[in-house]
Specification:
The protein is an alpha/beta fold. The chain has 13 helices and 19 strands. It has a 6-stranded parallel β-sheet with strand order 2-1-3-4-5-6, with helices on both faces. A hairpin with a 2-residue loop joins strand 16 and strand 17. Helix 12 packs parallel to helix 13. It is globular and about 60 Å long.
Length: 422
């Protein structure tokens, strides 16, 4: 029996694809190990220059530690560096963001021919690549990739160039995959994609998928990995108002709270539009948790621009802000912009925004104290049970619970896992 090892870098979409590959190999008599395997697979990331360097380093280190194994590199880093990839890494099979579902065929071809395989496609001219994960062995929240690609071309982002244009999974396949996951015991499903909110299968939109999933017996929670503010259409707002299976949490990337910076970023909304939509969301779903991503120190960002971001963050009352210091990404419009922000100023702004995030997070937690919440127990470790509420408050509980069950509890301060970096 041949052994395999998978190293996943980057986003939830990569994690889903790696889970598919894991199940594919396990179902074909391969054995998963922690390291030093016959077959080593690296699913790479290229979202930043640092991610590129890490992908390259991981692949070459695995080759060094597994000189006689089959090393497979795939994903965004490989796709972006297509023309020079064989000079950068030492791998036996190299593919981009297509044919990950066919990795078993590539492995068999290599075993038969012992010749390096390098295969890439034009990502602007590919269809959605079907995969189905029937069970997650290491997680109780199950992810389904329903969309791939992006049409937005934000000035700092390389992803549309390596993932291609928006394309979506067949609606019926989304529902069937969810049903299989529920039959395998999963109670919560997270819908994921590069741009999940742009899902469109022959007129079926994201709201239709959520409403379809809601009819599955045994499915208790439906969550989105992320959604853009401009993608919260009437159908999604109706879900927030009336669909009890949809959780009380949305992750909505803001990226900047200044109209000047938003325009430079090529984001498709203003700060006023963002605030108006958030106010609408809160009316429809009182108490909802809203987390976000913000890039600090974008080229041209002034002190006044950053103050706008702080002000907007306070007004919205995010429950969590994921803060990213801007760094140039080769190949993007932003990397060629002038008026780069000094590194020390950038660090100061990052620190200030992270401090605000901690304040807002604790404020949100405390606003929910003494309320009745439902928690999905996901892990037991060192005498405590860990899980998340519907509105994504991380809990650390002592008592008598069972993994993968949902319990109603009265939220106490001592139950909140303040150390959890969610």
């Amino acid at each position: 029996m041949k052994t395999f090892y998978i190293k996943t870098l980057g986003c939830k979409v990569n994690s889903y694809e790696s889970e598919y590959i894991r199940n594919l190999l396990l179902n074909n008599d391969f054995e998963e190990v922690e390291s030093n395997a016959d077959i080593c697979i690296v699913n790479t990331c290229t979202v930043t220059n640092t991610a590129d360097n890490k992908s390259k380093q991981v692949i070459n280190n695995i080759r060094k530690n597994n000189p006689h194994g089959i090393v497979i590199a795939m994903g965004c880093f490989c796709q972006f560096r297509e023309n020079e990839i064989t000079d950068l890494i030492n791998a036996d099979i190299i593919i981009g963001n297509k044919d990950k579902s066919k990795i078993l065929d590539y492995i068999n071809d290599y075993l038969n021919n012992k010749e390096q395989i390098v295969k890439f496609y034009d990502m602007n001219d590919v269809s959605f690549e079907d995969m189905e994960v029937q069970k997650y062995n290491k997680h109780h929240r199950a992810f389904i990739k329903i969309e791939d690609g992006c049409n937005n071309f934000c000035s700092y982002c390389i992803i549309p160039y390596v993932r291609g244009r928006v394309r979506s999974k067949n609606y019926d396949k989304c529902i069937n995959e969810a049903r299989d996951l529920v039959n395998s015991g999963h109670k919560e499903i997270v819908l994921a994609g590069i741009h999940t909110g742009q899902y469109n299968d022959d007129g079926k939109r994201l709201c239709d998928v959520i409403n379809g999933l809601s009819k599955i017996d045994g499915l208790e929670r439906i969550r989105l990995s992320s959604v853009e503010i401009v993608e919260l259409d009437e159908g999604m707002l109706e879900i927030l108002k009336n669909n009890n299976k949809f959780v009380s949490h949305l992750h909505i990337p803001l990226q900047a709270g200044s109209n000047n910076v938003l325009k430079l970023m090529n984001r498709r909304y203003t700060r006023e539009e963002f605030i108006d939509m958030v106010n609408n969301i809160k009316k429809l779903r009182p108490g909802i948790s809203l987390s976000t991503d913000i890039i600090v120190g974008f080229p041209g960002e002034t002190d006044e621009d950053f103050d706008d971001t702080l002000e907007l963050s306070r007004e919205v009352g995010f429950s969590k802000i994921h803060v990213f210091p801007y760094s140039d990404r080769n190949g993007t419009v932003a990397s060629k912009m002038k008026n780069k922000v000094d590194g020390n100023i950038k660090k100061q702004r990052v620190h200030k925004l992270m401090e605000l995030s901690n304040v807002l997070e604790r404020k949100y937690f405390e606003e929910n104290l003494d309320s009745e919440v439902e928690v999905l127990i996901e892990e037991y470790k060192e005498g405590y049970y860990y899980g998340f509420t519907s509105n994504y408050i991380p809990l650390k509980l002592s008592g008598n619970y069972q993994i993968n069950e949902i319990y109603k509890i009265k939220l106490r301060k001592e139950d909140i896992n303040f150390d959890m970096n969610n």
